[in-house]
């Protein structure tokens, strides 16, 4: 069975997903312990449990993202190969994770296309219209642009896109892991409607959530995980919300929210004052910001924290607050992008906000830092093997508690919190609420909370301000502060989502796009040509033009090869030595007086050698696990050594007919240059209008997300390395016409200069972005710079200095503009 089968072919109540004896152990943690679970067609199966209970780990095993230490997974009776996300995808499993698996550098439409089964996949040329139809069918009011890059989307929009594309796959089993954490009420209703359609058609839905109310509302059966073990599966209609909570935590919880302070207990004199909002927060007071997403409450909170430019004076303890004031601490609701740092431990993360307390004369005491972190982890009940564990390896809720621990240990005067319990289980929520209330009371701290959970705001806050279109329309407190009142104020204050202003200038937006490198390089070529032509009439002569374009053709093919590698997220330092090595090899075969058999061997080696070099580079990176720079540097040295061994001195004269053919021209333009330009155009079309091109960019942008979406990452990366070597081989073949003999050092300078041309042409050093046409143009520009230096009466050093300066400028300009646009709201 494959994903080509539709889920409505299945009989209701037959087993869709079965997990038998699944066990998964991480260092110091038994995440899953002999779990048995069955999900049947035509049901919504809820899975609940505290953070660290194993819910997400279990579904990671079911979707092929994790290899279990024991046990098996069956989809419609077919065993799933452990760790195979592609096979899980083909068998009909679609999953929406807590952090959307969108590829940052692909557009919304390309991300949707990437995960589609073959039977539902549209033509690449129609992606934009196809994606727009899917979003409109979902009735998305966010104004999501199908051509927008995923990295530019707001957190809520990323979740909407991930959910829409998962539902659009019409999977046999749809897994939703905390799907509503970033959604407003209208999107939640649309999601629930889609879930009901899924099960009505015979599909199965696994619904993981900390929101017990939602699970009770949507699920048919509920399975409870606790400490990695399945403690029971129950009919959802037979359990009350309180009973589900008791099953989750294994004990009866008291009141969910701590008691609020009465008016007489709140201190006098405001801690926080925001003029435009007319807001004053008293010592020990907790104030909430509510509103339909996009109406300004989130922006107001970030402005208080100095993270966005505000147009209203802010005062703390009666004194004007500076931007990024140390008296104000912000706790983000988007921990994956703004809160945690991959590679840092729990200890590092807790200490990061508290370095002044832990350092002396600029040096941090490791013992003091460890003691500080261990105390914070204990106080906040963070479940981690030890404080040296990487923070990203913890469950979502434990990551959140690490961030809260670091924030509260700074003893701020104002704590601005966005979604304080997002991704946190019901048991941990109680602890967080109590901590916020206790810290506010004991430290006379002002707390401002923005949350999409109305119940949370009503239960936790002393006052709630309701936002609409950037303004506070209602203030509720005391007996007037109820869920009904807050919801009514939100819904009656506005009927539509306000238009969003652009988060960055048009110029930065253009510079971050795909057309900017080509236009910029084109302008530079024309400007430099005009300047050099004014200095000498010979510059535009047919002789000089032919020579420049012939050299540009060689560099152009090398730059195209580097662009393939860079788009795939790797760098190939072996291109230059490969070009030289091929010339040395061919100096024994494609030479004057060579027999037909010898020539045939030479041409076969021209194909075999770059294939072998590309495969070796790939094997060193993907099999041996070397860094791409280190791996290709090894190949660089090996090829250079082989060239010198074969030809210690230049030797062997190439066949005149070969040299004549390689140097053929149409007028003053070399045919090789025309072929290079045509190749660049074909590769550009392939990059933008084919599945292979989308997969190449996906792997370079985020290999993990690409693999989750069913891309064969290793295969794509191997194709990139081999493709880079083949294009380098063509560059080496053309270089024969210029050197005429087997020179072992002839390709040395092409490695760095080909990378420079690719980067000037817009390729990103971090992968996922690039333009073959712009790289070809950049090769012309770099060659033109070298050729123009003598005409401009500049010293020979400028021939190396100018390309270096252009490369640095391109990296700075493109990287900065892309970063600003990606993080604009």
What keywords describe this structure?
single chain, 825 residues, alpha/beta, Rossmann fold, ABC transporter involved in vitamin B12 uptake, BtuC, six-stranded mixed beta sheet, 31 helices
Can you walk me through this structure?
The protein contains 31 helices and 26 strands. It folds into three domains: 7-104 and 155-249, Rossmann fold (3-Layer(aba) Sandwich), CATH 3.40.50.300; 263-493, P-loop containing nucleotide triphosphate hydrolases (Rossmann fold), CATH 3.40.50.300; 506-822, ABC transporter involved in vitamin B12 uptake, BtuC (Orthogonal Bundle). The strands form seven sheets. Strands 6-7-8-3-9-10 form a six-stranded mixed beta sheet, sandwiched between helices. With 825 residues, the protein is of the alpha/beta class.
Structure, briefly:
With about 800 residues, the protein is an alpha/beta fold.
Q: How far apart are the first and last residues' alpha carbons, in Å? A: 44 Å
Question: How many domains?
Answer: 3
**Count of separate DSSP helical elements:** 31
- How much of the sequence lies in strands comes to 5-15%
- Overall shape: it is globular
Order of strands across the main sheet? 6-7-8-3-9-10
Q: How many runs of DSSP E, i.e. beta strands?
A: 26
At CATH level 2, the architecture of the largest domain is Orthogonal Bundle
Give the CATH class of the largest domain. Answer: Mainly Alpha
User: Could you tell me the mean pLDDT?
Assistant: 84
Counting helices, strands and paired strands, the structural category is alpha/beta
Domain ABC transporter: 17-252, 251-494
Main location: membrane
Keywords: ATP-binding, Cell membrane, Membrane, Nucleotide-binding, Repeat, Transmembrane, Transmembrane helix, Transport
Protein name: ABC transporter domain-containing protein
């Amino acid at each position: 069975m494959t994903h080509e089968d539709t889920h409505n072919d299945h009989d209701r109540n037959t087993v869709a997903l079965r997990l038998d004896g699944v066990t998964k152990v991480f260092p110091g943690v038994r995440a899953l312990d002999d779990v048995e679970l069955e999900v049947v067609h035509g049901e919504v199966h809820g899975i609940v449990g505290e953070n660290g209970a194993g819910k997400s780990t279990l579904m990671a095993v079911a979707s092929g993202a994790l290899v279990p230490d024991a046990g098996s997974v069956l989809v419609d009776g077919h065993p799933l190969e452990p760790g195979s996300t592609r096979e899980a995808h083909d068998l009909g499993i679609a999953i929406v994770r807590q952090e959307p698996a969108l590829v940052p550098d692909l557009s919304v439409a390309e991300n949707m296309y990437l995960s589609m089964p073959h039977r539902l996949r549209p033509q690449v040329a129609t992606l934009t219209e196809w994606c727009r139809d899917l979003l409109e069918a979902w009735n998305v009011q966010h104004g999501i642009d199908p051509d927008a890059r995923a990295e530019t989307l707001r957190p809520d929009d990323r979740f909407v896109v991930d959910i829409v594309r998962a539902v659009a796959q019409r999977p046999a089993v749809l897994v939703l892991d905390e799907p509503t954490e970033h959604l407003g009420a209208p999107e939640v209703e649309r999601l629930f409607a889609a879930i009901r359609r899924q099960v009505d058609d015979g599909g199965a839905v696994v619904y993981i959530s900390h929101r017990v109310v939602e699970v009770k509302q949507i699920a048919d059966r509920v399975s409870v995980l606790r400490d990695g073990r399945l403690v029971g599966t129950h009919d959802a209609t037979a359990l009350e919300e309180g009973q589900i909570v008791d099953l989750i935590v294994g004990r009866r919880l008291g009141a969910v929210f701590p008691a609020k302070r009465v008016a007489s207990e709140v201190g006098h004199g405001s801690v926080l004052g925001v003029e435009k909002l007319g807001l004053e927060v008293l010592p020990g007071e907790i104030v909430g910001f509510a509103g339909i997403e996009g109406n300004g409450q989130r922006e107001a909170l970030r402005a208080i924290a100095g993270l966005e430019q505000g147009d209203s004076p802010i005062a703390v303890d009666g004194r004007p607050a500076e931007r990024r004031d140390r008296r104000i601490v912000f706790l983000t609701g988007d921990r994956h992008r703004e809160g945690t740092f991959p590679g840092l431990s729990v200890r590092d993360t807790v200490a990061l906000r508290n370095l002044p307390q832990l350092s002396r004369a600029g040096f941090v005491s490791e013992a003091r830092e460890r003691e500080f972190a261990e105390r914070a982890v204990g106080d906040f009940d963070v479940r981690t093997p030890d404080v040296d564990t990487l923070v990203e390896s913890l469950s979502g809720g434990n990551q959140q508690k690490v961030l809260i621990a670091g924030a509260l240990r700074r003893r701020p005067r104002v704590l601005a919190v966005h979604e304080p319990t997002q991704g946190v289980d019901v048991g941990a929520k109680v602890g967080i609420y109590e901590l916020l209330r206790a810290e506010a009371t004991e430290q006379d701290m002002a707390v401002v909370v923005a949350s999409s959970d109305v119940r949370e705001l009503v239960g936790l806050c002393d006052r709630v301000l309701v936002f609409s279109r950037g303004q506070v329309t209602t203030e509720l407190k005391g007996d007037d502060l109820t869920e009904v009142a807050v919801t009514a104020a939100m819904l009656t204050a506005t009927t539509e989502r306000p238009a969003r202003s652009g988060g960055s200038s048009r110029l930065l937006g253009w510079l971050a796009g795909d057309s900017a490198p080509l236009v910029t390089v084109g302008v530079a070529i024309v400007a430099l040509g005009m300047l050099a032509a004014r200095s000498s009439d010979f510059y535009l002569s047919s002789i000089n033009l032919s020579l420049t374009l012939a050299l540009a053709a060689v560099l152009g093919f090398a730059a195209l090869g580097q662009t393939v590698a860079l788009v795939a997220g790797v760098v190939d330092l072996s291109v230059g030595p490969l070009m030289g090595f091929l010339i040395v090899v061919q100096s024994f075969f494609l030479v004057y007086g060579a027999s037909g058999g010898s020539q045939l061997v030479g041409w076969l080696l021209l194909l075999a050698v770059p294939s072998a070099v590309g495969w070796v580079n790939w094997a060193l990176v993907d099999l041996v696990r070397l860094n791409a720079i280190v791996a290709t540097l090894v190949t660089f040295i090996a090829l250079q050594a082989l060239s010198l061994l074969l030809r210690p001195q230049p030797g062997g004269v190439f066949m005149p007919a070969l040299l004549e053919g390689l140097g053929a021209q149409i007028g003053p333009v070399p045919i090789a240059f025309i072929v290079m330009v045509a190749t660049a155009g074909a590769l550009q079309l392939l990059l933008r209008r084919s599945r292979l091109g989308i997969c190449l960019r996906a792997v370079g942008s985020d290999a993990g997300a690409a693999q989750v979406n069913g891309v064969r990452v290793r295969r794509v990366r191997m194709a990139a390395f081999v493709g880079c070597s083949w294009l380098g081989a063509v560059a080496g073949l053309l270089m024969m016409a210029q050197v005429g003999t087997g020179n072992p050092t002839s390709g040395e300078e092409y490695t760095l200069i080909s990378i420079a041309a690719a980067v000037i042409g817009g390729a990103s050093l971090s992968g996922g972005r690039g333009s073959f046409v712009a790289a070809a143009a950049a090769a012309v520009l770099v060659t033109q710079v070298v050729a123009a230096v003598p005409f401009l009466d500049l010293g020979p050093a400028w021939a190396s200095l100018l390309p270096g300066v252009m490369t640095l400028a391109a990296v700075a300009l493109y990287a900065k503009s892309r970063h600003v646009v990606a993080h604009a709201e």
